[in-house]
Predict the 3D structure of the following.
Amino acid sequence: MAVTGIIFVLFVLAHMYGNLKLFAGEASFNEYSEGLRTLGEPELPRHGFLTIMEIVLGISVVLHVYSAILLWKRAKTARPQRYQVFRPVQQSLSSKWMRWGGVFLALFIIWHLLEFTLVRINVGSGGQADAITQNPYRLVVHTFDTWWMTIIYLIAMFALFMHLNHGIWSASQTLGWTSTPAARVKAKTVAMVIALIVSIGFSICPFFVLVGVID
């Protein structure tokens, strides 16, 4: 769980950096997108690097979900009967959100792939649609010009913030990085900062598209 979580953190940071290139304009963003497709050439074929990354991320998703289910089952097995006296343990909102927030993020990722990669569900067909789908910058702007898609995206970014905040903290515990009070404070601070950077970094692009700053 911790190792695959770290892989996802590194990925979302890199993905967020790429998204912020929207502010540099259409040519810069499309050049960046094309650079990802040709990264590693001629040692790798076109799209080779992205294919490797997609495989790594796909395996990581499966292992992450499997680990989550396994840990949940272990928790159930460890205490099959309820306590006679219930004493609630204080939990952060992020920790309470983890299970269902993870389910929501999984559904969002499926929608996100359908929207931007597989079928571009809101573009339609015809010459104008072909021009949009072949232009990454135009595809992003076209998508977030639709207010309800931007709302879905912003809700997902809130879910991502909650998931990262608790997930990074939990991974730090698992990997033994919180052995002292000072280390625990540092780990919680790092988790909060990374979660804020990622969620805000992802959110400002669709917001500025919606209000017309990016067009």
